[in-house]
């Protein structure tokens, strides 16, 4: 078998069998295929696409290129949740203890943030003492005893994906549904959960900008998960404006805690209730979405979810007192109001620009080597559909880097569109994708 022949076959639009896909992934992972030939094959895939079966084969090969975590020692059906990334997406911090408090085991491996989207691990590390490092034994014991653990992905999971993504990034082959789906799902499948809930963001602040592309990506990932024996559901959710009000690591931790206290922003609460209900259905804790939603609501109103969050924080070395004392979290020296330049209704808030503004202040990374300021970020006061007078506060910027403020402020102000006529906010949830159907709302 020769890589030359595989490249030529895909260049000419033919289907690749499992053996040839396995050959490519295995040899490239071991540096036995040079970058120039791998680039040629990736470009052929980009142009001619892969069918459903090829995409499953590619995902499986990438999954098997590194460690595959065995979570069979954890009791119950393990459900993982993956978000394709957005601005203000602090969902795991609230959702994991919510679902765990309802009886579903949450064994989650999360990532760090890069660019305008934040990473769950960075946010959790804003909690003093919180450790995302744990060996397999502690991880499994934590889930069995506490029903919850969140840790970082090991460097040995899906080795091929790291190499291939770096190559795609510099060869203009990122935006292909099969390659994106395989990249996401190989890591989720290697992480060992029995079922997977996908939160596919769509809109300005998301990786997928259009609804059609977002549904297509969700369907591809659901097909992969189900094709490899994991019950998988995809949800399409809005990221045309930031989720909730807080953008930035410690600020998002506070908003997640407030949500478990019953004081969360309307959109964020709705998302947690919806995702949580589907996770409980996947974990077979309940039979219907409606029953699951009621369980999630009860977990908040009863205080069980908040207690589970404290337990989760303490178990991973963190100071659980942060739940009642936000002064224990990193705080910025400067908290400055950003005022509206005109009167009118907010018709648009470009989520990506808000994320970039927060990144400039220090809340995100432009490169993997950048050091985060865990206290930096933005707390919105107004959202789409709200009326503002000239001079009203749109948001508060939290920062320590004085030299970055004006640049971040300019990006922030330009992200707002203020008009004379009232604009209705867009839907939060656009639809659900299962192996059997695509249901659009």
UniProtKB/TrEMBL annotation:
It comes from the Bacteria. GO terms for molecular function: 1,4-alpha-oligoglucan phosphorylase activity; deoxyuridine phosphorylase activity; thymidine phosphorylase activity; uridine phosphorylase activity. One of its GO terms (biological process) is pyrimidine nucleoside metabolic process. It is an enzyme of class 2 (transferase). Its EC number is 2.4.2.2. It catalyses: uridine + phosphate = alpha-D-ribose 1-phosphate + uracil; 2'-deoxyuridine + phosphate = 2-deoxy-alpha-D-ribose 1-phosphate + uracil; thymidine + phosphate = 2-deoxy-alpha-D-ribose 1-phosphate + thymine. SUPFAM superfamilies: Nucleoside phosphorylase/phosphoribosyltransferase catalytic domain (SSF52418), Nucleoside phosphorylase/phosphoribosyltransferase N-terminal domain (SSF47648), Pyrimidine nucleoside phosphorylase C-terminal domain (SSF54680). Gene3D superfamilies: Nucleoside phosphorylase/phosphoribosyltransferase catalytic domain, Pyrimidine nucleoside phosphorylase-like, C-terminal domain, Transferase, Pyrimidine Nucleoside Phosphorylase, Chain C. Transmembrane segments: none annotated. Belongs to the thymidine/pyrimidine-nucleoside phosphorylase family. Homodimer. This is Pyrimidine-nucleoside phosphorylase.
